[in-house]
Design goal:
The protein is of the alpha+beta class and 74 residues long. The protein has one domain. The protein has one helix spanning 9-21, and strands at 35-39, 52-56, 63-67, 72-73.
Length: 74
């Protein structure tokens, strides 16, 4: 049985694409708007600080984390 707590690669790509376009990402399983939470990372001032977003489905609690600048999964 597949892990139900994670999105597959296609689902994550859809979430990321919606986020990058500026659309409100919807959970591909529940079809409800995902909650956004910013996440800091790296060491500020050292040149490799990242700004990430944590997108969480309020219904099924699955989530995805993306590097905002690159639009990629971490």
């Amino acid at each position: 049985m597949a892990d139900r707590a994670q999105y597959d690669a296609t689902e994550q790509a859809g979430i990321r694409d919606a986020f990058v376009r500026g659309d409100a990402p919807l959970c591909p399983r529940c079809h409800v708007a995902m909650t956004q939470r910013p996440i800091g990372g790296g060491s500020f001032g050292l040149g490799y600080a990242r700004r990430r977003e944590w997108l969480i489905c309020p219904r099924c609690r699955r989530s995805a984390i993306f590097d905002v600048r690159r639009g990629t999964r971490n």
